[in-house]
Give the backbone structure.
Amino acid sequence: MTARRFTGRHMLAAMLGFFGIIIAVNFTMAWFASSTFGGTVVDNSYVASQKYNQWLAAARAQEALGWTVAMTLDPARHVEVTASLPATRVTGTATHPLGRLPEQALAFVQTGEGRYRATTPLPPGRYLVRIIVDAEGTRAGFQQDVPA
């Protein structure tokens, strides 16, 4: 039995196979990345970086107030808010994390002491809910992930 020689054709086939697999994987990963990315986080990262310290100071001031807010979904998918402060107005938005669905504006009605319920239900899916609470002449913002 004679051994087969390794020729230039064998080397060419090995190189084409090796690089073909790498290129196919790269194109597949690039397609997945571009098809699942919903958009930008901020429009201008330089401007956002300049406002970062202001955002931290506002967050510290809000935290010093000691206000807390909890958000849940009822069975009909209405966002329910329980606040530790007497709010005069609660508004909000629900954003799909990947930006695939349009942002939903939320209006709330008071259902009890410190309890508020959105007037419209959320469509199925996971959302980042941001609410603004106006109370005692102060405005506070809160956000929370609401599961699917």
Remarks:
- The chain has two domains: 7-37, 66-146.
